[in-house]
Amino acid sequence: MAKPLYRLQRFLRRAQLFLLFLGVAYIMAGSVLLLQRASLVVTQRGATSPPLPSLPSIPSPPRALELGMPPVRVGGYGGRSSRIMARGQGYQPGSLLDNRTGARWLMSRNLEIRHLRRRWFHSLMTEKDMSQVERSTPRRNVPHKGSYIGCFLDNSKERALRGSVFTDFRKMTSTMCQDTCSASGYQFAGLEYGSECYCGNHITSLRVRDKECNLDCKGEKGSVCGGVGRLSVFTVEDMLPGQRRYRNVRYRGCFREPENSSSTSLVHVLQLNLTSQSCIEACMNKEFPLAMLRSPDCFCGYATPDFTLHEPAEEEHCSQSNTTEASLPSTLQHFYQVYQTPVQDSRCTEKNFLPEKSSSLVALSSFPGAGNTWVRHLIELATGYYTGSYYFDGTLYNRGFKGEKDYWKSGRTICVKTHESGRREIEMYDSVILLIRSPYRSLMAEFNRKCAGHLGYASDQHWKTKEWPEFVSSYASWWASHVLDWLRFGQRVLVVHFEELQTVLVPRLRSIASFLNTTVTEDRLLCAESNQDGHFKRSGARQPTFDPFTPDMRGLIDGLIRAVDQALRDRNHTGLPLEYLPR
Fold it and tell me: Where is each WSC domain found (predicted)?
């Protein structure tokens, strides 16, 4: 009898300890939940407060630089930069740019990165919950500038409107779309998926029930912006001929008529009292990017391999052919005055992810401010494939770079943007397109972006603050180290100079496409040249009213240019363009 009682006592004691353990675990779990809820409330309250005043954030810095940057100095430009210049006559592999410090720069840089990632996280949450918000938000009537026509079918193979295309995943409204289409010379504006805007002068698909266009505009709740495969179409605000004001109309020059006119698919437009303005408007109505005037005839068409617009003739040939009658010699009767209309060349607007995941990872690497976004735009036009990014820049994604959200190692994009220059980061890529731009222009472009965003300009007041000399002191040596590190550790390198892309775009795009092992047609390359500006270029060329570079700054930058130029030549690459530095 005693043994069973003893066993029962032992069991109860163990059970008490077990129950005590469960109770403690339960209390600890409850405490953790309470702490999480408290932190969530604090975060939500903080989200309603006004944001801290700071410059726009930039992509996360190269990890090689996170390990250190040169100390920020206002006056002198010595130290590591002087060691780079000392090697200007011959770059030798080694620990040239490895001793890096700079805690103050690193702290401010990391703060920018945290703001960027926090803003990106909130944008993801907003888009994820968009459908729930749309279901709970009552419809309201929003006034439009133009007239609503109806809802139409639309798909990637048979577009209802086949003109210009642009995207804004955050701020798209019907008014924004109509204004863009009107400025580009189109009569109709269509919206789809709440964020995509299409322009055109002809609707080529069937109309469906209005209720099938059921998605709100991303930037205007209650305003319908199409649906899934459905386009909400508006007529733009009507204006009388001659009163319209277009953007990006430019004179391309005088060109000889191609020998095989039929291969250029020129469309002859008959008009009375022909003028350059009336010829441009006639070609825009027919959705052609080129208007060609040879009095009394007007022709519309595209740039083609037989009519590339790469070899202009003397201007006097066009002036004679447009003012002289039939008695003009036949050798001077076939020259066109060519104008670029605002109509977008639609031959290269369709883009997709790679049909099969690529096993090769290609970097598009550059110093910030060197034109990486512009070159991504050109590559997407020329190849028809999206480019990716090592970073998550919500601004670029909202403007149509759909590869921005894709994981950079997914293999679905044709190349990946990066500003990294550490050895470990460089060796993760199989090859690299190394984009180089003049450090003077790169530094100014990046400072403009920091102060006023991707498309803005810094004011004179910004250039006069102490932040500018500190910026040059830190970033100028980064410009050099970025190039030298990629030359040193990159496995397969194609060097592309920004300035050469501006002057000889098609040959450089052809070499980039070959490096990417992608076949592109001449028509698509010419289309990319026609649409090269896109929506990602700062308007005009606004400069500060004074020279922001002091003699000390120029001495530093010129020495870095010599070092990089020598390193390129030592590795059998083309040296830097002559305009970088007078030699």
Answer: 145-237, 248-342
